[in-house]
Amino acid sequence: MSQEPLVSINRRSFLKGLGLTSAVTAASCASDKTQNIYSYVRGEPEQIPGVATWYASTCTECTAGCGIQVRTRDGRAVKVEGDPRNPINRGGLCALGQASLQSLYDPDRIREPLKRVSGVGETARFEPISWDEALAQVSEALKESLAEGKTRAVVTGEMSGALGDLVSQWSKSFGASHSMYDVLQPTALAKASELVFGVYGIPEYSFDRAEVVVNFGADFLETWISPVQFARQWADSRRSAKPVRVFHIEPRLSLTGASADHWLMNKPGTEVRVALALLKLVLASGRGNNLASDVRQSLVGMTEKVTPGSAAAEAGISEEKILSMAQYLLSAKRSLVIAGGAAASTADAVSLHVVCHFLNSVLENVGTTVNLNRMRIPGTSMESMESTISAMKDGSVAVAFVHGANPVFTLPSDYGFEYALRNVPLVVSFSSHLDETTQNANLVLPTHTGLESWGDVRMYEGAYGLTQPSMSPVFNTRGLGDVLISLAASAGKPVSDAPAQNFKEFLQESWKAIARKHGVAGDFTKFWNESVERGGFFPQAEVAPADRVRVQVNRSVFSLPFASVAFVAADATGHEAKKDEHYDDKGPAAHDAVPGKEVLVFPYPSVKSFDGRAANRPWLQELPDPITQIVWDSWGELHPSTAKELGVAQGDVLTVRNHFGEVNVPVLVSPYVSEGMVAIPIGQGHGSYGRFAQSVNTGNVLTLIAKTAVKDAAAASVAPSVALVSARAKAFKAPGRAKLVKTQGSDSQHDRDLARTRLISEGTDGALVTKGHNAAEHSHDVKQMYQQREHPLYEWGMTIDLAACTGCSACVVACYAENNIPVVGKQRCYEGREMSWLRIERYYDNGTFTNKEDIPPPEELSVSFVPMMCQHCHNAPCEPVCPVYATYHNEEGLNAMVYNRCVGTRYCSNNCTYKVRRYNWYDYEFPDTLNWQLNPDVTKRTVGIMEKCTFCVQRISEARDSAKDEGRTVRDGEVQPACVQSCPTQALTFGNLKDPHSAVNKARDTDRAYKVLDYYINTQPAVGYLERLRYAKS
Amino acid sequence: MARPFKSPITLILIILTISLVALFPFGSTEWWGSPGSSAVMAQSGEEAYGASPMGTYKNLGIRDGVHNNGQAALWDLHIIDYYRIFGPPQRARGHRPEQPIRFSHITHVQQNKMDCQYCHHSVAKAAFAAIPELETCMGCHKAVTSGSLQSRGEQATDATEKSRLLQGAAEVKKLEGYWERKEPVPWVKVHVQPDYVHFNHKRHVKAGVTCQECHGQVPNMEVVERVSSMKMGWCLDCHRMKGASIDCSTCHL
Amino acid sequence: MGHHGTQEHKEEAPVTYAEVDSTVAKMMEPPTLGWYILLATCLLCVGVGAASWTRQILVGIGESGKSHPISWGAYITNFVFWVGIAHSGTLISAVLYLFRAKFRNSIYRLAEAMTVFAVLTAGLFPLIHLGRPWFFYWLMPYPNQMALWPNFRSPLLWDVFAVSTYLTVSATFFIVGLIPDVAIMRDRAKTTFRKVLYTVTALGWSGSHTQWKHYTSAYLLFAAFATPLVVSVHSVVSWDFAVSIVPGWHATIFPPYFVAGAIFSGVAMVMTLAIPIRAVYKLERLITLQHFDAMSKLIMLTSGVVSYAYITEFYTAWYSNNPFERAQFWFRPFGDYWIAFWIMAFCNCMAPLALWYKPLRTNIAFLFVLSIFINIGMWFERFNIIVQSLSHDFIPAVWGYYNFSWVDVGITIGAFGWFGMWMTLFIKFFPAVAIMEIKEILPPPMRNEHAHGH
To answer: What's the ipTM?
Structure first.
């Protein structure tokens, strides 16, 4: 880990470094050409050729603030990993974070400042321009606008920390409005906290302390608030003696729902009724005396009209379920009720969150599972967006800055943001991608990505993440901070009393404040270097003793609407948006003649494309969606009956259209979606962003949703957050068929005992008993015919705990990054030629041990995820059949693969029981500059060669190497394959099976341990699995 | 059977076999006009250096001390390498590309007694033996400037020494040029390995393998030359001899 | 010794030596336009195949229809198909020779040529099928600088030896068998080209007594040498599958099952070739209905064996109670590829049953159609074994479907063209019917004709 940040490497000498690696990463034929070795001009103390340097930093992909460590080789970032020392993510990192490298090396990144040469409204054409010119132009415009008395607007994504301070200070001194916008920020939740607890913000939830969780659609294992942190908490509890019992109520099966014990499919918009029913039942049992009496009274009044029966009827779930939920909540010592995700993001989101908050306070969870001392304060504010946009529309804004947000894509189109931009004389975009918003800019000043820039993230008081550049900028970009500071300097408006020359200094200033705040005595430089080295400063990483926050209820809360949500009809008229026709070129008139049935549009975020910012990363595009197993596409999930109504079948194209926009999505028929709605993932269908994003041309689902104006005293005049589930639309079959590429063959495991589930149920004495497979039946004691293998020193093996696997697929992306796995594109995936060494098999079964051939109905559903990679069998079927010894068993128990010896008979793949070998059917390209990411330690494979998981043998040999230097053997935990390292829940453990005390052996020392198919064919895999845990349906 | 040579074909076959077998011993010798030590001076221009192998190196050819004479196997015929019959020339024995600067190991190692690791400093620390940073070169050449060499050359009496110094001055000038431009020297790689071979210098140095066993008597080379085609059989032979691992995944990752 | 051999010609006058010579010689008269067209067609097909292979090498092996999890497809199917075709040739020429089955004599030359050319075709496929064909020589055990041997445990390596052995032996046997007849051609040859060709290939045959003495013993030796190959080669090929663990491949019944199938398909192919040649070159007097009746019986037998093998496979799958085997054999008739399965079942098991009706055994038109059916059926048998098993094995999550590509088709066409090309050239330049052997079973010419009337 570096003590001194990587400032000493300037771009020039960094480029020198490239020569060294280029020889290593070049295509295999390159060794036949003349190669040059470029030495550094000046020596870099950290840069020993061929030795990796790691930099601690903080992930800036979302606002969770996970700590990362960036592995660089000869000045290039080649891998991003979670930082085990970080209290938020504790070592894991999600797929999005893993893929941040591909945003850094995105071949479609804007490489230098651009100036728009085409007029307003025309298709944008840009020309390069120098930084000096560009900045001069901006400061000129600023001066003018000040002179003319016009205003300025700064629209950014969610930003905290020093950069946030800088921007607001800058805005103050330039008299500009600063508004933040992030479509997935749960601001409604923050608002509800303000109404119920008297504090605006997102409380910190701890799933590991709850015994029962009732969850209204919050995808806390995917994108919600801090998924990696929550996933780890959830997993720790699931592995404990008393696993948390999760009820998940949502209209469409999400990844999080798949991991819940009781998944209840409700009608969209009815969550609040179920919540009320629960509240009623809880109050009825005499709880809630911790509340002020009048509050309790009004709560009772609130819940008068609803009964479990009526709620059940409205929601379309059984009454027993509601009753048992209430029962579990009441009997639990600590519980947690949350709402979030798409399901909770409706016009009346606040109401739902309010009820959940009340449930939590009545159940006395505040201070235990709901921590109000650790508030995240979201900066996103629809009010300020509203005002900014209207200011833009009426032409009073002269200069607008846009940074870190793509509102044209993520704002409901009836905000008319695009139209508003067109009314601004100078729009400056700081995006480093030519996205929809940037298309409307007059000037593009590309910024660094998080891996190139300084910065910090403030999760909450007491957790400060620090971001440092892990390499010098790939392109001719500059950080927003530096640009603002130089602008301020040129305009003679200092942004801070301590004049900072660049953003790094500004950052250090603000960290001096932090040091003072937390009473860090002594030399700041020491504190600073320590923080940089540690990737942040976490004075109270441990949970503070919960002080019972008094519930300070804003009494107006009871006048909120608590009915089921009403959705905007497809042919809604008189909508605000109609005031300016410019926002929608089709115009509403086109709509009324539309045929087709009306369905509810249900846009949902996913681990694949988040809110659309990740759409141009091939790894994520090729990553099979954990639930649908579809790659490179967007889709519309329909309930079979709805599909029948609309007269469409799987693979047809469905046009979904309403006033605001239109999308054309391939139909995906699934029984796990509520009737009368079409569920479409957010973030696909970019009109402009990059080659990979634009390859999915379905149209943007967010154009279908309506800005919802809840005029209400209690709630703000504007709904605090965008309501994803708000609008209905007409849906009808479009001509043509779509090629929907699903990488999974069969959804059922056909009673083959691949993914085993163990049912937990209360015994007579109330203690938990688990019922697994008949141990005798599966005990595997075969008389071995052949002599068993000898492993003198090491026998590498892995243990995978299915009870902790959420199917989040972070490991898959990590594997792509570590092992130079090529991305093959949609067509090749369709042909079954995807190259992923590690796949997450997703099976639908009913959780009992009588798996049916067909997939079960929603109420019986039990989903299993099986991470499947090379099992490194000790009786490997692939080994004896290779005619040239390209694959063989080595004395460390690895099923080794020698790429350069392979002639490509593919017999090994045929004979592989687990079908985990992947074959290079073609020579695959790594378009410049994505090839900069290639790992120099791993050979790039060419056409006609078989490849597969190697347990990251390059890491093993690295560890062996350093062990030899120190004259010892490899320590337990010293080797961590990319997948193991990345796992947010630590479901994977790797180590030496020869060592009885190794973590991998300890992990599999349980009656849940089994090996896939070993019982049938005696392959003796080195990978062991632990049965999945699930509470018996009650 | 009685008269085996009845058919001419049999005869031809036998003769061919004999001659082929006869070739094996020549595999590693200098007979075939290899550009080995004998040929070092032969290259045009280099007479000007007039370098004469001196000190202990006097009696050493550049391939002395190389493991198994750089031969992968008995049938790894040097003639085949030398005339580039198979495989890319860059990987063959005798490959000696022209370098952007005529860096002379004779001058630096023999005359000035520099240690290999002074320049190739990471050879014991990492997989790669570093090419020295320009900074390192300039460390000495701040003092030994092209100017100083020039003047010394002009004063030199011995003709060969004179021309040698003048040549040196010219080369150092190039170096200084690169340093001024802050531009790396585009050295041409001599010991090219295919990408699927992951050789680790550190491990070999720590195991006590001498530089010469693979690279030959570099101190004797005016122009660095590849003394072995470094074929797999060659590596394996040494690994077997020294009881090192012969597991494929030791080098092929 | 040839008396009983003539009984079939009771009604008509016996074939004379001169007649044999002339009929066979007629076959080799300067090529007609029809022959040229035939050859051109074959060459065209070869061209298509060559183009497809070139594309595959330049663009990538992915141009063939194979994918994950179905890594073997049309190529291996063709390989097994052609090796199979080869077998009956050896059976008829060598085995029946040892059993002194006289009816063989008039068809064995054709069968043997078929053998050699079929092996020639089959031999191409392992090469075409490789991902990196430029490294094919790594499968040969030869001293190399890498100090590496091939893996002798791999069935694919056994294949290399099996097929190359088969090619050498059958080719030698074939050429040796040709010598006396070629000598006759040499003596009748008019054009210089043919003179040279036959003089070389006749290896100075003068028909002297000593030469015959050596010749017959040599021929016997080669026959004895070739006979075990009939069983061994296709057994080895079957091990490519039987040795693996893939459900549907991993079966001990494979070797006999494959050998029977091979002979079955081979005999069918002999018919497919013999019938048109017989018609075109008027060989009715040499290749008589009797021969077809005999071949039909052979087909009935082998078809029976093959059908029995199919049933056994299904029975074993059921009886083993192995979920994977069971799923596989349920998948075959009712799964994605049910058509392929039922084509096979009809062509190989049902259609040949018609031969139990005697008149059909000598109905040339019917036999021709049937033989074509059997060829198709046997191709699909291999397709079912290879592709169906692979697309539906242990892990349901990776079940897949084979998507045929144009390159697959092109190369398959090319294979038939390649085989046809050799055949076409052969019948024009070498005696496609064995003159000497037929003469053996004819009454030797006597001064007094009546001495032989019955």
So the answer is: 0.86
Residue type, A50: G
Residue type at C422? W
pTM for this model (two decimals): 0.89
- A283/A300 Cα distance (integer angstroms): 7
Distances (CA, A) of A951 to B185, C45, C227: 39, 47, 50
N- to C-terminal Cα separation, chain A: 51
Distance CA A461, CA A539 (A): 9
**C-alpha to C-alpha distance for A558 and A195, rounded to whole angstroms:** 10
> pLDDT digit string (tens) for A809-852?
999 999 999 999 999 999 999 999 999 999 999 998 865 544 44
Question: Cα dist. A408→A411, A435, A976, B107, C36 in Å?
Answer: 6, 9, 42, 67, 71
Residues of C in contact with A878 (CB under 8 A): none
Could you report the per-residue pLDDT of A311-342, keeping only the tens digit for each? 999 999 999 999 999 999 999 999 999 999 88
Provide DSSP, A524-547: HHHHHHHHHHHTEE-TT-SPPPPP
Whether the pLDDT of residue A17 is over 80: the answer is: no
Among B248, B250, B251, the strongest candidate for a mutation testing the A interface, having the largest count of A CBs within 10 A, is B248
Q: How many C-beta atoms lie closer than 10 Å to residue A772's C-beta?
A: 16
Residue C414 has φ and ψ, to the nearest 5°, of: -55, -40
CA distances from A683 to A411, A416, A697, B73 (A): 12, 19, 11, 60
Burial class of residue C330, CB neighbours in 10 A (0-12, 13-18, 19+): middle
The helix/strand count (H/E) of chain C reads as 17, 0
Burial class (CB in 10 A: 0-12, 13-18, 19+), A99: buried
Q: What is the DSSP letter of A984?
A: T
The number of C-alpha atoms within 13 Å of C343 and in the hemisphere containing its C-beta is 17
DSSP state of A32: G
Count the helix, strand and coil residues of chain B and give each as a percent rounded to the nearest 5.
50, 0, 45
Q: What is the mean pLDDT of residues A456-466?
A: 88
Rounded Cα distance, A893 and B194, in Å:
27
What CA–CA distance (Å, rounded) separates B135 from A917? Answer: 48
| Nearest Cα residue to A565 out of A181, A217, A197 | A217
* Residue C125: closest C-alpha in chain A: A905
> How far is the C-alpha of A89 from the C-alpha of A81, rounded, in Å?
11
Question: Residue A604: pLDDT band by 50, 70, 90 thresholds?
Answer: very high
Encoded tokens for A156: 């950014």
Residues in chain A: 1034
**Token pair of A860 as six digits:** 């019986």
- CA–chain centroid gap for A421, Å, is 29
H helices, E strands: number in chain B: 11, 1
CB-count burial class (<10 Å; 0-12, 13-18, 19+) for C332: buried
Tokens 């900066």 belong to A379
Which residue numbers of B have CB closer than 8 Å to A's CBs? 88, 90-91, 97, 122, 125-128, 130-136, 179, 182-189, 192-196, 198, 200, 202-203, 206, 247-250, 252-253
Of A27, A890, A961, the CB nearest to B249: A890
Type of residue at B151: S
Q: CA of A9: how far to CAs of A15, A16, A17, A40, in Å?
A: 9, 10, 10, 10
Tokens standing for residue B8: 């001419």
**Interface contact A915-C322, CB threshold 8 A:** no
Q: How far apart are the first and last CA of chain B?
A: 54
DSSP A691: H
How far is it, in rounded angstroms, from Cα A919 to Cα A934? 19
For residue A1009, give the H/E element and its range. Answer: strand A1009-1010
